[in-house]
Amino acid sequence: MNLKPVDIVENISPEQFKSEYYLTQKPLVIKGLSKQWPAYNKWNWLFFKDLVGDQKVALYNNVKSDAYTPINTADDYKTFGEYIDMISAGPAGWRIFLFNIFDHAPQLIEDFTWPDELMKGFVKRYPMLFTGGEGSITHMHFDIDLSHILHTQFSGRKRVLLFPFEEQHKLYRKPFEVLSMVDFSNYYDAEKSKVDYDKFPALRKANGYDIVLEHGDTLFMPAGYWHHMEYLDSGFAMSLRAMQNSVGGKLNGVWNLFGMRNIDTLLKKTAPKPWYNWKQKKIFEAAQRELV
Description:
single chain, alpha+beta, Jelly Rolls, 5-stranded mixed sheet
């Protein structure tokens, strides 16, 4: 993999952000954006536990989904308070995915402001909280609705591997899915890395970015960007999503949500082995074309 650092700024004008990052589809870390929010100092584990500790949440472990598993299938359930106790006790490879804490505590909306000056189209009904224990992993994928993301880390450190959407075949994308076939776990550690370049040689040609997010860092991920995240510490982050301006971008997101995903789920249930074999064939054919 050919990796370079993500650009980092303290603050940025809307004009510069749009011309150099939004329109060019280039990721960026803004350190100062969240510092003006009450959430920057207010939000922590104990605050959330007191607020929504009794809410039941879906948990996900580090096991990479196989060819027969529908996406976003939970591995366990606990209350949010039980989960916080668990990950506070030490390393725990469990994360919470797409928890809309604001449905249960709408007053939290007052703790941040939507950065409409940077881009339009924010889906303001659905700010999302993502949490993980130390050592938990979000495997390589792109967001199915193809929205732009502002992802702000509030606690702990998180390492993020990013690739533009166009690198999909070098990443061995599964047809009709948003997932990569490759396990990128510990990609930055030569001794622990699970990246298999012998099995997936096109990875050597993949061009991407590598960044460690800390408290207050806001990562701009353009629509369709592939991302793999590893929690170096127990922590949580909030994602603000903005739809693409173009009609084509919106329609592609709708197709992924209601067409592609439903077809994949149906065939995994009705013809799992033939569907898996067809996918494998297509994955390696597309990767071979990248190598040639």
